[in-house]
Amino acid sequence: MSDKRKVILDCDPGHDDAFAIMLAAAHLDLLGITTIGGNCSLQNVTKNALKVLEVIGRQDIKVYPGHSCPLVAPLVTAPQFHGPSGMDGPVLPEPSIKAQEKHGVDFIIDTVMGTDDVTLIATGPLTNIAAAINKEPGIVGRVKELSIMGGSVTYGNWTPAAEFNIFVDPEAAYRVFNSGMHVKMCGVNLTRQCFLVQKHVDQFYRIGTRSAVFAAQLVEYFMDATEKNASLAGANIHDACAVAWLIDEKLIQAVPMHITVELKGEFTRGMTVCDYRHLRGPEPDIDLHRKPTMDFRGEEPNAEAALELDFEGFTELLDKTLACYP
């Protein structure tokens, strides 16, 4: 029996989701992957997940398509960053393995209700997780924790206030954050610190495994798209942070916060409203070492918000992972 942490990865591949899959498959007991319309259409992100599994030789991991669009709004995608396929760059054959017939939400529910200590990881919009909670509220008490890439303690990336994954389906995110499930949030304030540049691409090519070359090609495309659309000379591998946190908690410093999601604001819809008043001293910056107190009129923290990444440790983990695959 494996002593690795049991996880389900809910994702929308996506270049950075591909890194999340590679990390999870190598270091965690990945019970299955569920997909969600987000970076691209459900059909494309599901195909991309299957392609990644074939590249790394993990065809044993099953993929379960979930919802194709948000709970109440039309789907917003990000082709300017990920291309029409959702994972442009590497040229890969059509996957020989197929997605499962079972709906992703039902897979989440059945697995969590039938397996102890399952951790959920979500690196796309939270539609599938919210739908699972709505259909079977009992999963809230059985999920060990939920590690997400989404939101921000500071400013957004899709709008001034909102990060993409939360913006796509804020109603789902609101349901999740207010469900009672323990949430570990890797927001863009943290994932901006996970910034790969050409020297990292060169290292992947030196590692030379099929997975490492695939990773290099992913980053090359993502760097180019990011430079064109965000004027940044590198690529943020956002989604991998939510997985790395579970592999080695020392890689990320986090603090407890109460987090909810704005649904009605004309300019702030999708914003993660993070209350860190209990962590502030006389200076305006967040004090990571200040002991949390409840000496303010706020709500109890319902989540952990990631603030600082050990980037060198992260890249060491990533290099080790890419070298371990055939």
From TrEMBL:
Q: Which residues form the Inosine/uridine-preferring nucleoside hydrolase domain?
A: 7-315
Q: What is the lineage of its organism?
A: Bacteria, Bacillati, Bacillota, Clostridia, Lachnospirales
Q: Which Pfam families match?
A: IU_nuc_hydro
Organism listed in the record: Enterocloster aldenensis
The processes (GO biological process) annotated in the record are: purine nucleoside catabolic process
Gene3D superfamilies in alphabetical order: Ribonucleoside hydrolase-like (3.90.245.10)
N-terminal signal peptide? none
Q: Name one GO cellular component term.
A: cytosol
GO MF annotation list:
purine nucleosidase activity
Q: What is this protein called?
A: Nucleoside hydrolase
Fetch the InterPro entries from UniProt. Inosine/uridine_hydrolase_dom (IPR001910), IUNH (IPR023186), Ribo_hydro-like (IPR036452)
Matching entries from SUPFAM superfamilies are given as: Nucleoside hydrolase
Report keywords, A-Z.
Glycosidase, Hydrolase
